[in-house]
Amino acid sequence: MVADFFIARVAVERAAQISRLLGSWRPDLLLRDEMDVGAGVAAEAGGVPSADVVVIAAGRFVAPDLVRAPLEALRTRHGLRTGPAHATLRGNLTLEPVLPGLRDPADPLPRSAVPVRPTILDDVAALHREARPRTCRRSVYLTLGSIFGQESGDLFPRVLAGLRELGIDVLVTVGRELDPAELGPQPPHIRVERFLPLAEVLAGPDLVICHPGSGTVVATLALELPSLLLPLGADQPWTADRCAALGVSRVLDPLQCAPADVATTVLDLLQDGTTDHRRSRGPPRTSRRNGRLISPTGVRGRRRGRPRSSRSGSGRSSRSRCDRRTAR
Fold first, then answer.
1. 213, part of any domain
2. How many other C-beta atoms lie within 10 A of the C-beta of residue 263?
3. 3-class secondary-structure state, position 279
4. Model confidence over 64-115: pLDDT tens digits?
5. Alpha-carbon distance 184 to 177, whole Å?
6. Among 67, 57, 101, 154, which Cα is nearest to 316's?
7. Domain count, the chain
8. Which residues face 31 on adjacent strands?
9. Which CATH number fits the domain that encloses residue 96?
10. Residue 63 structural domain
11. Which tens digit of pLDDT belongs to each residue from 269-286?
12. Which end of the chain is least crowded, N or C, by CB within 10 Å?
């Protein structure tokens, strides 16, 4: 999928579009997500520095051997020399808004990658500063993402069936394309919405059940919330495997899990966290490691040098585990 779609198709279109834009307007920096390879190629060809933002939290989604041919063809078309795929996929600077240790050590980032504090910490802290009503009941947030939820079959009904009789509040977001009414009538303690801001839905729950999309997983781990992962596609299986290996999440097979499996796992996870974090912890506190991460607004001074004509393929070893400790 990455080679045939993201490189051979999307990257080709994006490189052409961005090249036309850079012909009439020259920015000081092009900022892109790491999968927007075409924008990076256009920037390099146009002599504009670029920075890529990590959006594949655990890595391993892009196999250099598989993307080499379409990537070399794209670079040649724009007059760039070819080289190792893992190097030419990156910009002048890589920004990593991912918790330390989450990325698989088998797919390291460049040594020059800059860790960035996950913005969810500040977003949720701002919500906690507001006067917000709290409930004594335990609560769960359920999402399958805005894309994969549309193709999840009966997964929503199975998960809700497992949660319905547990005596907990449940908030569900199904995405803008699905009608909450499609899930049928729900009891008062289960609320179904199309969309709510991530900071709002993560400011209060005791547990998150989700597709392990990188953004949701990073936010959940940053807030030290326990999670149950249901990998559906794209990079989610790798993210789920990494979280399971680190012991920071539980994983169920979305095709095979029954309501009873969901209920048992949720009760186990809630029992592990016997103290309600919303009452005992209050606003999220920054972990010792996160406290040293640069904020997004502090990245401006980190851009180095001129656009390069070649890239280094050196790797950076990931730390062995997620540091989930909090500053006391």
1. yes
2. 17
3. helix
4. 889 999 999 999 999 999 988 878 899 999 999 998 889 999 999 998 899 9
5. 16
6. 101
7. 2
8. 51
9. 3.40.50.2000
10. 2-117+293-302
11. 999 864 344 434 444 444
12. C
